[in-house]
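Entry 12.
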Amino acid sequence: MSGEVRRKMKSHDIASLIRRKIRNRRLEPGTPVMSTAQIARRYNVCLMTAHRVLDQLESEKLITRVKGSGSFVRRNTFHGRKLVFGLADENRIDYDLKRKTLMNIFPETALNWFKKQNCDYRVIPYMAFRDRDMETFAELDGLLLSPLYLDLETTELIRSLPIPVVIYRSEFEIDLPFPQVVPDHTTAINRMFQYATPENCGGIVIVYQNHPNGIARRDSFVKGAEKTGFSKDAILTLDIPVSEAYRTGLRLAGEIRGKLLLSCSDLATFDMVSAFAEKELVCGLDYQIVGFDNLEGVLKLPPEYPGITSIDYSRETAAQLAAKLLVSTVMQKNPFCYQIIKLPTRLTVRESAFSHQQEFR
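Predicted 3D structure (tokens):
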């Protein structure tokens, strides 16, 4: 047997010893691993064999080498391997930039966070849930779940999964025994209604889209208005598809003067402002508008658009918190964590509403 083959076998044996220590948690994630010189002395091998040991462990993603500092056990390893997470939230192909921006922030942020934390991931299609394809879930350590995947055909399977599940991207608490990350609408809405009162506002018009998050936003607006003293007759709610926003704006133009329009999605906000402008209504003077989503800071809008006063929350923060919560739940071996994390929403005042109130500046 040649010396080259003996060296390969020796390095394999030494790598197995170190791998076992990682799997048994005798070497915790983040702790240093022996250097090539230390390995050579400890196991009485040459430096070339010691290098092979570290090369092998690095190729298996068990260690990371930091120039000038040494080698360390990679973080988020579990039983000597990388954690594997499922993401049940597919990126959407959409030619509308505003819609694509809003829809893809969550999954893109979550996947990038998994990558940075040395975790593998699988994007799980909806059909895997509907068809009860258990092989798809067999290799997963945890699942990050969009409520878009929850329905009568999938919920029973999701409840039965023997792995931790974290729900994100919902804007209300879902009645399932899983940890969740949701925005707290009341923080920004309560602040808004300190200034939008029955004394200085001729009425409230709320336009929303008929999906769970749109309804949650609508209900939060209605609750805030009623708490402030608006009567039910002073609050008009309209369920409109985004594609109908412009035409709805044209119809509302004759009755929106002196009122506050609350748009539950900026996908509709800009079309409605355009429709009112066509009817020669000046935003911020003839009427006021508050949009939800704050696309003002994401997209470059035409100069004729007024700055839109907005309510929003950090979707990047929500996605990162959900991914972090999932990893920590798996690492702590606690699949029955039911923690609810609430993110405060923020009110950003621009020309379209309340800009005359100095307190908001």
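Annotation: Confidence is low (pLDDT under 50) at residues 1-7. The first strand starts at residue 32 and ends at 33.
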